Amino acid sequence: MNQDWRGALIRHLLLLIVAAALIGAVSGQYAWALAGCLGIYLGWTLWQVLRLHKWLKNHREDEPPPDGYGLWGEVFDSIYHLQRRNQRARGRLQAVIDRMQESTAALRDAVVMLDADGNLEWWNLAAERLLGLKSPQDGGQAVTNLVRNPRFKEYFARGDYQEPLDMPSPVDDKLLLQFQITLYGNGEHLMLVRDVTRVQRLEQMRKDFVANVSHELRTPLTVIAGYLETLLDNAGDINPRWARALQQMQQQAARMQALLNDLLLLAKLEATDYPADNKPVAVDLMLLAIRNDAQALSGARGHRISLETDPKVRLKGSEAELRSAFSNLVFNAVKYTPEGGEIRIRWWGDEQGAHLAVQDSGIGIDPKHLPRLTERFYRVDSSRNASTGGTGLGLAIVKHVLIRHRATLDISSVPGKGSSFVCHFPRQQVA
Ligand code: ADP
């Protein structure tokens, strides 16, 4: 083909020169003859260009280009092939896009694509069902105008999407949705929304179950503990062989009561997002009382417990909840610090907010345990636990109370040297 058009071009030029030479020989006007022949060739070339132009402008899809000769034929064919190749590539891309759209449309989870400003670009069918988006009129609208819940607005504006957001669907508040946003490209957002109503219901059933069982066990246990106490009060009448058994039974009953109390407290903390009361709490006085209790708990073990507080810094929140969280931290320090150890309690405020640090010179915790320490019943050393009488729920309670007061817990520890538990309360929580 390549050779063909070269040959044709050379043939055309030769023909032109021969024709010009012949006409020139006949007429004796070589220059005019060459000019005339060139003019004819130019005219033919222009005609080919015009045909190409007409075809490019008006042709139907699949209509082949007009027949051309020599170089022009080659140009027509090349353009035609290029066009066909593009068409095929476009078809393949369209098929991929169609398949993608079909598969995302079949998803039960909502997928929403937003631009960098949070305006809707594309969404699937589930997004219409779960979020009430309407196609196509909602295209280009800001997502915060369509999902109007203030919690969603705050979450979206914050720009920190590490944790998902759970909230009711804007179209049906019986549906609980979980929003998860990922940033990609030039700050565009990909929003995935899952219906977690069922998971939430199961979670609620679990919480209710634990709360109900704890509640139901409380009365029988109170009766058993009460009779044990009465029996031990009359220890003189009892066979001494039984007295020790009764004492152990009383100890274990007390442990079970502590466990039930902690489980009930946790259930109560989980039932709502924020504490019911939001009064200013005098943390310094509370810590003073906790310190005295801790000294009593330490007893003959002789811990040195120091307390530094700033009485001006007060917290907004529930006094009972904060007391149980703080005393858990301080009592843990006593439990896990050997005799004569040092415990330091500090309470202070700064620009970031308010902070409570409980530091001890105790046994410490291996760093591998730190991430799981606040899980329920997580124990570093279960054999030691039995001797300290812990329930394994103390730090879980601390975590829940802190979450409810928008605070965070920092734990650092060196095994054998001691541990430090620091609670950070944000400024908005300081009274
Ligand atoms: P427990 O009732 O067993 O104390 P917690 O939830 O309060 O349960 O604590 C979980 C575990 O964390 C404890 O079993 C203990 O191993 C470890 N721990 C907590 N506080 C300290 C501390 N101050 N020093 C060393 N270990 C600690």
Automatic annotation (TrEMBL):
Catalysed reaction(s) here are: ATP + protein L-histidine = ADP + protein N-phospho-L-histidine
Q: What class of enzyme is it?
A: transferase
Instruction: Please report a single Pfam family linked to this protein.
Output: PhoR
> Which key words tag this protein in UniProt?
ATP-binding, Cell membrane, Kinase, Membrane, Nucleotide-binding, Phosphate transport, Phosphoprotein, Transferase, Transmembrane, Transmembrane helix, Transport, Two-component regulatory system
Quick check: keyword Hydrolase in the entry?
no
Q: Which GO terms describe its cellular component?
A: plasma membrane
Q: Name one GO molecular function term.
A: phosphoprotein phosphatase activity
The EC designation for this entry is 2.7.13.3
**Where does the record say this protein resides?**
Cell membrane
Output the GO biological process annotations, alphabetical, semicolon-separated. Answer: cellular response to phosphate starvation; phosphate ion transport
CDD domains in the cross-refs? HisKA, PAS
Q: Which SUPFAM superfamilies match?
A: ATPase domain of HSP90 chaperone/DNA topoisomerase II/histidine kinase, Homodimeric domain of signal transducing histidine kinase, PYP-like sensor domain (PAS domain)
Protein name (record): Phosphate regulon sensor protein PhoR
In which organism is this protein found? Pseudomonas delhiensis
Taxonomic placement: Bacteria, Pseudomonadati, Pseudomonadota, Gammaproteobacteria, Pseudomonadales
